[in-house]
From TrEMBL:
Function, as annotated: Mechanosensitive channel that participates in the regulation of osmotic pressure changes within the cell, opening in response to stretch forces in the membrane lipid bilayer, without the need for other proteins. Contributes to normal resistance to hypoosmotic shock. Forms an ion channel of 1.0 nanosiemens conductance with a slight preference for anions.
InterPro entries registered for this protein in UniProt: LSM_dom_sf, MS_channel_1st, MSC_TM_helix, MscS_archaea/bacteria_type, MscS_beta-dom_sf, MscS_channel_2nd, MscS_channel_TM-2
Protein name as it appears in the record: Small-conductance mechanosensitive channel
Keywords: Cell inner membrane, Cell membrane, Ion channel, Ion transport, Membrane, Transmembrane, Transmembrane helix, Transport
Membrane spanning stretches: 12-32, 53-79, 85-116
GO CC terms in record: plasma membrane
Subunit structure: Homoheptamer.
Residue ranges of every copy of the Mechanosensitive ion channel MscS domain listed in the record: 103-168
Length: 259
């Protein structure tokens, strides 16, 4: 078998140049996709009428669309006919769909979340056993930020298929009430100390009306150490209720231990 060195050299040069062009095209396409994503985000953000969740989603779709166009251009650069490629993909679409059914379900769930919008950027939510503030919604993932500033990434399929508790859906305040038993002799002192700490908490909406009082007598069988029940009440934002309750309980426990 005779090898034509001139033909081989020409082929290597041709495919080598095509490879360089492909790498350059991919680099330019990657840059353009990011630039288009930023441009769409800026344009939609200027109007102040488009929900930030929609802005993030549309910008993400724009980036993937640019990358898809660049991918087709790279394939054509190597002489691969896109019509033939579509025919091949059509023949294997069933297998691909079965293999990626989890990913495709996440994509479909992302579209449903965008359409119905059960939450918005910045909302405090609980979903799929996780709690945090919504930061972004992409094609496949929902990003939350936990109270301790931890990133939580949830597949959209889990978010759409689970109960969503949105603490920011309705404006207003909620009331917390925490009760615990104390000895009657130290009840007034503990109540004043807890009230002082409670009114220092900036999460209390109306700190002047926060109250700590003796709600009832629990046990008077022992005259030397009767037990009463203290009730702490305050108004807070619904998203801060659990954190304020925990703070009250921690402070009360520390005071009781010291007493």
């Amino acid at each position: 078998m005779t090898v034509n060195l001139d033909t081989l050299q020409a082929s290597l040069v041709l495919y080598g140049l095509n490879a360089l062009y492909a790498i350059l095209l991919l680099a330019i396409g990657w840059y353009l996709s990011g630039a288009m994503q930023r441009f769409v985000t800026r344009v939609l953000g200027v109007t102040h009428r488009v929900d930030p969740l929609v802005t993030v989603f549309v910008a993400s779709v724009t980036r993937y669309a640019v990358l898809a166009v660049v991918g087709i251009a790279v394939l054509q650069l190597f002489g691969i006919q896109t019509a033939s490629l579509v025919a091949v993909l059509g023949a294997t679409s069933l297998a691909i769909g079965l293999a990626l059914q989890g990913t495709l379900s996440n994509l479909a769930a992302g579209v449903m979340l965008l359409l119905f919008r059960p939450f918005h950027i910045g909302n405090d939510v609980e979903v799929a056993g996780k709690a945090g503030k919504v930061r972004s919604l992409s094609l496949f993932m929902t990003e939350l930020v936990a109270p301790d500033n931890t990133q939580i990434l949830l597949p959209n399929g889990q978010v759409w298929g689970a109960a969503i508790v949105n603490h920011s859906a309705y404006p207003g305040t909620g009331e917390i009430k925490v009760t615990f038993p104390v000895r009657a002799g130290s009840a007034n002192t503990l109540a004043n100390q807890i009230l002082e700490k409670l009114r220092e908490d900036p999460r209390i909406d109306d700190r002047a009306n926060a109250a700590v009082h003796i709600s009832k007598v629990i046990d008077v069988a022992n005259p030397t150490a009767p037990v009463v029940e203290l009730t702490v009440s305050a108004t807070v934002k619904p998203s801060d209720a659990d954190a304020v309750k925990q703070r009250v309980l921690d402070h009360a426990s520390a005071l009781l231990a010291a007493a």
